[in-house]
Amino acid sequence: MSPVVHGGPDAAGVAPHDFSTNGNAVGSCPAAVSALRNADAAHYPDPHYTALRGRLAAFHGVAADRIVVAASASEFIHRISAAVAQGGGGQVWLPPHSYGDYERAAQAWGLRVLRAPQPHADAALRWCCEPSSPLGQLQADLPLHATSASGTCVLDLAYEPLRLEGRPSLDAAQLGRVWQLWTPNKAMGLTGIRAAYAIAPENVDGLFTARIEGLAPSWPLGTHGVALLETWTGEEAQRWLAQSLQTLRDWKASQRAMCESLGWQCLPGDANFFCARTDRPYPDVAAALRASGIKLRDCASFGLPGHVRMGVLPPASQQALKQAWTGTA
Predict the structure, then answer these.
(1) Beta bridge partners of 310
(2) In 3D, which of 109, 5, 68 has the Cα closest to residue 200?
């Protein structure tokens, strides 16, 4: 089993300047924070999430029976992998660089992993992500996956709400042919609240969807997860998000310039993060940087050794990184 590697807090807690995770660095959405404070944690939520499914369906303009509520993106990744395995699937196709839980879930259910550029025609499950992780780029072959009639295709849209540049590869009709996986906690600046949902394709096999629903635990979402997703669909939260994206665009431009001033080679990307090849190996200086309150995401586990992934942070954090990196020279 592949080791678990994530950005974010570690045994020492939260780094004061944590570039290793990709939540909205502008802060937590005020409307969502208010909803969380007012959530009724003394009672169970509706086990069928009737009102929540309706709100999410209306937000996306789809039928409510296409909404699948999930405890988190990672929980859904494991659940749909289990459903594919139970249905007799044997292979999972992954992009060349991708979130590690796709592979971990496949291994847990005995599914053989294929990676691009291997053909995907025989794969029972295909994972796509746009903007991609860790690069934050378009997935060039995404339209081909959306039109393929073979297997199940899941498009991970974790970073679509935090897109700062470019346009999605798929139009509405193409989106209707794939599973869409949404995790708004990143965009809302509240990654500690675990809540997600998927939108089934328009013509999905009902038995497959029933298998996915049957694999869910009772109440995958608590009241706080429900509150987050309900708020996400509202005008106040969407207005705040749109405003925060402009701030992130400004911060991203200055952060790329700062990294280039250090001699790093910054890769292009459309989201609120980007990858860079550093002028010396990050693992050699990671401990010293962490002691200075700095944490980056080593990309070796993504198949990109020599690179780091950096969430966009405010100018003060950028300056702290520059001083700490220069101090380790």
Answers:
(1) 274
(2) 68
